[in-house]
Amino acid sequence: MVYIDASGNICAARPPSRNPIKRASVSARNSVLSFPRVAIALAAAAVLIAKSGLYEKYFGPLANGAIPAGKMAPEKHWAHMRKTTIFVRSMTESLVGKTKATTKEGKKSLAEVKSMQLLSGADFGGPDGHAAEEGAEFMSMEMIRVTRCSTTRSGVTAFYCGADVATDQDVAHGLNAKSWNFGTDSFREYLACRHAQGQRDGNHRRSVFRLGAGCKSDRAGMSHAWSIVAQSDGTYWWLQSYINKYSLSSWMKKADNTKQSGIAGQLTFDELLKKLDILDRLMSIKGWTSQANDDYLYLFNVDKEMEPAKRWNDSYRLSSFSWDEACEWPLPKGYLAKDQEQEAGQKDTLDDNESYAADECSDWSEEDYDFEDDFEEEWSEEDKLDFGSEEGDDGEVESFIEPDWDFLRGLHLGNTTADDDVFESE
After folding, report:
1. Where are the beta strands (DSSP E) in 39-178?
2. Which has fewest Cβ within 10 Å: 63, 238, 251, 358?
3. What is the mean pLDDT of each run of 10 residues along the chain (426 residues)?
4. Strands 318-328, 207-215: pairing kind
5. Residue-wise DSSP of 190-202
């Protein structure tokens, strides 16, 4: 077939349409057909960036050592954490797997913790608790916000202190991991000293505390992790979530007319001490009672409804309390006048090897929690046998080797697992 164009010439190819709409349609179609290779390349690059963590490393909220809390006015922190749906997920995404095991001891500890968690069949959020729930993200908004308590604690720490501090206790660090402090008495002592210091100077230390309460049984479902963030006005934010129960956002919305602030998570110094008193009472129970249930509800906002009563034993009681001052959170540049900044002692984070400022408050005692006494007096005879004692002819437990108490302190918190190195020959 031949065609005659607009000039009267005979040609073999069909001449382009003189209809402007048809010409535009053909042009657009040709442009789309020339684009696939570019589109595929861009999509592949996006997938690779996501898998490699490059986005979080260079553009995420914690990229390049950023501390998100230091980029906004303190009075906006509460609303930001409460209203941002993916707050915890965005803060913890880059923490998972951040710490690489570079020493033999670190690799061994990491492998042991992973094996222990795999055998238990429970999801602890990875070896360090940083990982948010997976596979159930779209079951409810609470799952999207994150309910795992350890992940929420990691997210709060990252927001206020940055990624390096949020991961300084990771199992992969091995012996170089930042250590915990033990016992409510030592925590009270430190809090009281800092509060008195703030009252005297007119500027309260902006501390971020990581806290944990644990029991001897991994299957009891009673252990908890949370954060306390001290404010410059001398008040404290008790920040928490609870696995499969509620998110940080939901907790922050909870009203409480027994609190001076009217909000469950915003406490005065005396209200915080009252919570610690109730925690002490909960850690001394001999069985699960209505009072124990009320105390647990008051502290952690979960009504167990007497569920542990039928299966209660001593291993279910909260028996250890650990705490750590992660950092002193920074203020935005220019937020205070220069003389106020100097007086407030603004700093980004605490030195990795020094948890406390060199002043009158740094003289707290690590011996307030005597792990050895706890082992000897409160652990069951079966527990003691498991940890290197033997049963004599008369049925009494006889200790024949001295445990490595420093190692057991880590074991008690779930930071390490028992092996042949736990005990030292006498």
Report:
1. none
2. 358
3. 63 62 52 52 50 63 90 96 93 80 66 61 66 70 90 96 90 82 94 94 94 86 94 97 94 96 97 97 92 95 78 87 95 68 46 47 53 47 47 47 45 40 35
4. antiparallel
5. HHHHHHHHHHHHS
In order of 163, 178, 225, 347, the CA distances from 155 in angstroms are 9, 18, 12, 20
Question: H-type helices in 253-378, by residue range?
Answer: 269-282, 290-300, 338-344, 371-377
The 10s digit of each residue's pLDDT in 56-107 is 666 788 888 899 999 999 999 999 999 998 899 999 988 887 767 566 666 6
Quickly tell me which residue has 């001076």 as its tokens: 260
- Residue 211 phi/psi, 5-degree rounding, is -130, 155
**pTM of this prediction?**
0.70
Q: Which residues pair with 242 in a beta bridge?
A: 246
Q: What is the amino acid identity at position 103?
A: T
Nearest to 229 by CA among 219, 240, 241: 240
| Alpha-helical runs (H) found in 323-370 | 338-344
Q: Which amino acid, one-letter code, is at 173? A: H
What is the Rg, in whole angstroms, of the alpha carbon atoms belonging to the chain? 29
pLDDT digits (tens, 9 = 90+) for 233-255: 999 999 999 998 999 999 999 99
Name, in order, each residue with C-beta under 8 angstroms of 324's C-beta and a sequence gap of 6 or more. Answer: 169, 178, 179, 180, 181, 209, 210, 211, 355
Whether the Cβ atoms of residue 239 and residue 156 lie closer than 8 Å to each other = yes
- Say which residue the tokens 């046998």 belong to: 385
Q: Is residue 415 helix, strand or coil?
A: coil
Exposure string over 86-109, b if 16+ CB within 10 A, otherwise e: ebbbbbbbbbbebbebeeeebebb
Identity of the residue numbered 91: M
| Percent helix, strand and coil across the chain, each to the nearest 5 | 45, 10, 40
